[in-house]
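RECORD TYPE: inverse folding
INPUT: structure tokens
STRUCTURE:
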């Protein structure tokens, strides 16, 4: 089921990226949130982070959230400049 989510998320974000008028300047934010969800699914299910010790899992979760947050913040700042 995870692979189906990854495929559908990839197709959906590709479609959304090609249709900027659908979400306007928020398109990049939506695509980045989908990318974060995909990265998290890969870390949890294909890298077996679900079974990792709590410090490892928290560090990877924090890294993913921080990366997505920084990219989204920079995008929004650039879009409003």
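DESIGNED SEQUENCE:
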């Amino acid at each position: 089921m995870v692979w189906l989510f990854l495929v559908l998320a990839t197709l959906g974000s590709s479609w959304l990226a090609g249709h900027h008028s659908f979400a306007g300047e928020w398109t990049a934010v939506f695509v980045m949130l989908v990318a974060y969800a995909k990265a998290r699914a890969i870390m949890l299910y294909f890298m077996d982070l679900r079974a990792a010790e709590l410090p490892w899992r928290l560090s990877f979760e924090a890294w993913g959230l921080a990366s997505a947050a920084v990219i989204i913040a920079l995008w929004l700042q650039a879009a409003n400049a």
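NOTES: DSSP finds four helices and no strands in the chain.
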